[in-house]
Amino acid sequence: MSASSLRYYGIGLENGNYTVKLQFAETAYTNPPPPKWDSTGRRIFDIYIQGDLKEKDFNIRKEAGGSSFMAVVKNYTVPVTNNFLEIHFFWAGKGTCCVPQQGYYGPAISAISVSPADFVSTVSNNEPSTSKSKTGLIVGIVVAVVISGLLVVLAVLVWRYKIKKRKIDEELLGIVDRPDMFSYAELKSATETFSASNILGEGGYGPVYKGILSDGRVVAVKQLAATSHQGKRQFVTEIATISAVQHKNLVKLYGCCIEGNTPLLVYEYLENRSLDQAIFGKSSLFLDWPARFEICIGVARGLAYLHEESEVKIIHRDIKASNILLDGDLNPKISDFGLAKLSDDKKSHMSTRVAGTIGYLAPEYAMRGHLTEKTDVFAFGVLALEVVAGRSNADSTLEPDQVYLLDWAWSLYEKKHALELVDPRITSFNEDQVIRLIGVSLLCTQASLGQRPSMSRAVMMLAGDIEVTEVTSRPSYLTDWQFKDLASNNFSTSEFSANKEAIGTAISYSSDALLDSIIQDGT
Predict the structure, then answer these.
(1) Which residues contact 432 (CB under 8 A, 6 or more apart)?
(2) How far apart are CA 41 and CA 96, in angstroms?
(3) CB burial class (10 A; 0-12, 13-18, 19+) of residue 192?
(4) Of 45, 63, 62, 64, nearest in space to 7 by CA
(5) What stretch(es) of the chain map to CATH 1.10.510.10?
(6) Which value, to the nearest 10 degrees, does the dihedral of the CA atoms of residues 318, 242, 221, 162 take?
(7) Do residues 406 and 382 lie in contact, with contact meaning Cβ atoms separated by under 8 Å?
(8) Where is each Protein kinase domain found (predicted)?
(9) 289 φ, ψ to 5°?
(10) Is 401 a catalytic site residue?
């Protein structure tokens, strides 16, 4: 059961048609009669399979003829074309949330069964043979004892070798799902001694190199710079965080290396590099409108997984165009979890050090260090506008009214000329999708946390499954200062032109009126 969203992933399936059998039973609400206050609740949610809406406003008890504790079975035939199956149960804001007490009254599922519908799988699903052989048992015991003895000797040797040569951090040894460990020599060979010709880019903590492992895999090796503020504890946290999550819109971590003083992370290699290179014209790759729209939905789904569906709730803290990578099919993948912060509802959300990128920082985080998942929601809104416009969020080379993307977007939106925001390089686009994406972006970048949607709700709005909530007024951080007043009162024209970007960022995050609105919002 969940309060808002549940996803089931089947990964590595053979392609073909599958029969998906879903079984439900209402257990939280009791049966009437007699009618009681705690039996009047309704559980209503939507069912998506492979992104297609299969059931709208599905009500388990209604499907069971009004009875609780009664099995409801649904069967669907769905295609698997990329060896991947996704089943999504989504609470769209209908039904009851707090009866008989506040809890998990969103989607619920009792059992899921997936089996080939019209083909025979090449992988056997039979149990191992249970036939018993006395001779085989004796041989098995003898072999097991011998192997166990050898393993004990080998383990002692390896342990002594590690004590002398490596001294791996105790913290790393405490991670349950530790990724593969690579040797420094192996990664040095894979990257041709970390050759400058193999540099893919410069991350927040150091360079990233392209490498080819001995098994033929092409990888991206992230090397932490000596000047990085990220210590071993943070490095181990990053490894544990990335290893704990699996999603098609998140970059996959193959392993790491902790030899010496230069820790290394080994990621999957994504041939189309980062999103900023594509949309800001730094590469030959051109993204048409369908590709850009799907990229925004993919990023939103990845964030929804991190915030609401992962085993641990994760706040990325540095969502921006350069941290979105594209694979060969232009599928977006969120990268760089070096700034990720695991959220613990029992602890304070006040961060001792604000980390992120100017232009994408939510005002309450930039100003007061108040960190929630709505920090990522704000950054996504800025990113989506950049994808629409094909430019960065601040560009001092443009006309004065276009320097700041959020300000310009609001001006066009208020004049009902929002379509003029679209990248002029795009000659054809779906107007309804553009309006939806801009509307969601403006909603995500509201000053008040309560007005920003959750990422799962943003996904539904982008997909057109629910209406985009209309925003009617600019956020306070855009209305509480005026560049013209600053220019005339404090700076010459030339001084203002040269410094307006820095001035705008500082003032937009230090407004007294903004602080008041944040306090009133309850944050």
Answers:
(1) 464
(2) 5
(3) middle
(4) 45
(5) 275-520
(6) 130
(7) yes
(8) 194-468
(9) -65, -45
(10) no
Closest by CA position to 327, among listed 287, 277, 246, 268: 268
* Cβ atoms 351, 362 nearer than 8 A: no
- CA pseudo-torsion sign 355, 361, 367, 371: negative
SS (H, E, C) 446-489: CCCHHHCCCHHHHHHHHHCCCCCCCCCCCCHHHHCCCHHHHHHH
Q: For the whole model, what pTM was predicted?
A: 0.62
Fold of 5-116: Jelly Rolls (2.60.120)
425 DSSP assignment: T
Whether the Cβ atoms of residue 32 and residue 39 lie closer than 8 Å to each other: yes
Tokens of residue 340, six digits: 């990720």
Query: Is CATH 2.30.38.10 the classification given to domain 275-520?
Result: no
All CATH 3.30.200.20 domain ranges in the chain, comma separated: 180-268
Cα–Cα distances in angstroms (integers) from residue 60 to residues 64, 142, 201, in the given order = 6, 55, 51
Q: How far apart are CA 523 and CA 372, in angstroms?
A: 10
Q: Give the number of other CB atoms < 10 A from CB of residue 90.
A: 24
Q: Please, where in the chain does CATH 2.60.120.430 lie?
A: 5-116
Active-site residue, from 38, 177, 276, 318: 318
pLDDT for position 154:
86
State the pLDDT at residue 96: 80
Question: Average pLDDT by consecutive 10-residue portion of the chain (523 residues)?
Answer: 86 91 88 64 90 92 88 94 91 77 81 91 66 67 84 82 54 52 89 91 79 92 64 62 80 81 85 91 88 97 91 84 93 75 43 65 82 92 96 90 92 93 94 96 92 95 93 81 43 40 40 42 43
Helix (H, G, I), strand (E, B) or coil at 218: strand
Task: Check if the beta carbon of residue 337 is closer than 8 Å to that of residue 241.
Answer: yes
Cis peptide before 116 (omega within 30 of 0): no
Which tokens go with 115? 């089996």
| Nearest residue to 59 (alpha-carbon basis) of 19, 29, 102, 20 | 29
Determine the CATH number of domain 180-268.
3.30.200.20
Question: Distance (Å, rounded) from C-alpha 523 to C-alpha 448?
Answer: 9
Instruction: Extract the tokens encoding 353.
Output: 């050090």
Pairing between β-strand 324-326 and β-strand 180-181 as defined by DSSP bridges: unpaired
DSSP secondary structure letter of residue 396: T
From CA 148, how far away is CA 132, in angstroms rounded? 23
The pLDDT assigned to 150 comes to: 87
273 phi-psi bin (left φ>0, alpha ψ -120 to 50, beta other): left
Tally of CA atoms within 13 A in the half-sphere of 305 that contains its CB: 21
**SS3 category, 18:** strand
pLDDT score of 163:
63
